[in-house]
Amino acid sequence: MQTPLTRLLSAAGALALALPAFAQETPPEVKRGGTIFSHIIAEQGVLNPALRASTGVYQITGKMIEPLIDKTYDGYVGVLATEWSSSADGKAITFKLRDGVRWHDGEPFSCDDVAYSAMNLWKPLLNYSSTLQANLESVDCPDPLTAVFNYSHPMPLALMVAAMPDLGHPVPKHLYEGTDILKNPHNQAPIGTGPFKFQEYERGQYIIAVRNDDYWRGKEYPYLDRVIWRIIPDKAAAAAALEAGELHESPFNGLSMADLERLGNDPRFDMGTKGFENNVAHETVEFNLRNPILADVRVRQAIYHGLDTDFAIKTIMRGYAKPGRGPIPSAGGENYTDDVPTYPYDPAKARAMLDEAGYPADANGVRFKLRHRPAPWGEYTTLWSQYYAQAMKEIGIEVELLTNDTPGFLNGVYRDHDFDTANGWHQFRSDPAVSTTVWLRSGAPAGTAWSNQFGYESAEMDSLIDAAAEELDPAKRADLYHQIQRLEMTDLPVIFAIEHPFIGITSKKLINHHNTPRWDSSSWYDLWIDE
Amino acid sequence: MPSILVYLLRRILQAVPVILLIMVGSFLLIQLAPGDAVDALVGDMGGADAAFVERMRQEYGLDQSVLVQLWRYLVKLAQFDFGWSYVYEQPVATVLMSRLWVTMLLMVGALSAAFVIGVALGTLAARRAYSLTDNVISTLGLIFYAMPSFLLALLMILVFSVKLGWLPVSGIKDIGAFHTGWRLWVDIARHLVMPVAALSLIYMAFYMRLMRTSVLEVMDLDFVRTAKAKGAGGRRLMFHHVMRNALMPVITLLGLQISTVLGGSVVIETIFALPGVGQLAYTSVIKRDLNTLMGIIFLASIIVLVVNIVTDMIYAWLDPRIELQ
């Protein structure tokens, strides 16, 4: 039996339990208006993601030009497309397009724009996409809101969908048709369908985008009035700008790790990898198999045993990384497996393997020398190359570092093959067929960046890659990629040593920030500022 | 024709082969660097296939031999066409003009401040040689001389922007404020305070040290003693007799240092994110933006030659014994 007192206590208890839940479930009231200042390190010559598949471009154009499909934490969601399906033979992929969408100049968006973009930009002009869409024969428009992509060979729907967030941005046909596409002025002043409209690009200083009052998601979106990207090449100056309140965020390791850690402890900022899960890269050690020493797989395996990746993760990436398990990162979803051969840090074993391979140490403790080219991609690659040289010394390999800038690196490694080992990034782009297998497939002409710089030739690997590129059954496709991972981890033409997402730092005044796995490339339609 | 115009005409004609030599030499030297603009572009994009790379090389004319590229460039340059920037996707002339004013403000501001303050402090130190004032000025000069400008720049940002919040960290103006008229110029001046100071302090130290030594030397010369004996003293002696002669080596150094200051502006513009020619030069080298780089070299050569001519004319004005021939 309940007394008034117990009833009162029960009610109070229930209220106490309910209050935190109420507090959690009630979203804060959205504040409209305001300007976000975001950091970019480098200029972008072209602001057209249908011509340049580059994270630096998406970071800006993502607010103005939308893709057919985007990736969220709940999976792939339609943006300009609402549905997608494949024919039984995989040679026709159909997209249903969103109704009521207008370009920033007021013209309606339709299948004509998608067909024109696919045939005139995505297939012939867009990096990565020209390989992806190599078998695209035509795009039909049975009605203004249906686009049918016709392929000469089967195109896995999963591959197409995974590629669309990066490689599926339509441009307005009425502004591009009949012009020199590469010199079209809208490549610098984009017209899209996104929540923000391009306003101004002051070279070397800033880019401004303003609210699109006619955005298809509804009049309430976007919440912000403006987004401004400030170009600050010096990382220390960018850190000071963030600290002084002149920037709200700096993504993609735009600050040094020391500053990221320091400001990450400042209660005004959120720092971490959330929102960058789709932008995963590997730190690599790349072998030139034309060198007879490195052509011996035992030497490559010994080198892997000589690398303490945990130490590097802790000291270089400050813990924001994990050991790699082959060419596909854990962000690769079902195509990833960790059931692969591994080479744990064991310098004694490395030395023994090198002895066994016929490379004993001389009186100075040196077995052989390697000329190493580090990619100049930033702090991680530089420090990783220095660590690599030190680690190799421990097992009797003398490494000479040949520092160079980007064109020097690309020429030395990919065209002239003037290296013994190299290190750089392998940036994973949603699906192995888009960004990864090109590293391992034989047959690419010399000089093609990011394509088998190792001189690796394996009939088994080539056949697995080709089969996976056309396999329509997702489970079988995943199994093929697992086999590719295992074969790569056995043959080791390259060590995908460390897998790391990028790191960003953001003012806590920004609400709804980094709420998708490719947030800095997304549209920010729901972002607002609490000040 | 007045002799000064004849002199100017002759100097300009002499400059033409010099500029041509600089441009040809620079063009060939740049070719020695590995890689080209398409490599840099592909690096930025994170990858591209062979067909894309080939098409871009054709588009930029990089598939031609070096001599063909050089000839085409010189023909265009003769018509004052600086070509197309691969990085900025704009005519190089447009890119240069949008940047030049920032660098000119920075350089003129830094050199003017360094010259005026350096000369004044050097003269003061010489007049009070071996006193406490001299020691303080000389010590400060030594510190500024020894301190790298990038370190000074970062310290200034830390103190005046992050800690005190007095001055903006970077950029040439408040973005999004859309100032116009005099408010815009005040805003630009605020943004230039730290870059000008960071760039000028080392040169100020140079001029101060040189002026101090020069004034001390001149003050010991016979004509100064004679002037003193004739009753000249105080300001007249210092400004009319001593400083006018003591300035000669400082002016020489100033003329010679124009190219060094232009080089120094690369670092300062990068740190303060100033959209000037220095930062542009750095980006152009990294991105192998050949046309832009050549445009910058052309512009820098012209500036250095003009400054040299002006310096020679100032010599003649300061010292009547020197004739413009």
From TrEMBL, chain A:
This is Peptide/nickel transport system substrate-binding protein. Its main location: periplasm. It comes from Amaricoccus macauensis. One of its GO terms (molecular function) is peptide transmembrane transporter activity. GO terms for cellular component: ATP-binding cassette (ABC) transporter complex; outer membrane-bounded periplasmic space. InterPro entries: Peptide/Ni-bd, SBP_5, SBP_5_dom. Belongs to the bacterial solute-binding protein 5 family. It is found in: Periplasm. Residues 1-23 form the signal peptide. Residues 76-442 form the Solute-binding protein family domain. Keywords: Signal. GO terms for biological process: peptide transport.
UniProtKB/TrEMBL annotation, chain B:
Residues 100-315 form the ABC transmembrane type-1 domain. GO terms for cellular component: plasma membrane. PROSITE patterns: ABC_TM1 (PS50928). It holds the Pfam family BPD_transp_1_N. It is a multi-pass membrane protein. One of its GO terms (biological process) is transmembrane transport. SUPFAM superfamilies: MetI-like (SSF161098). This is Peptide/nickel transport system permease protein.
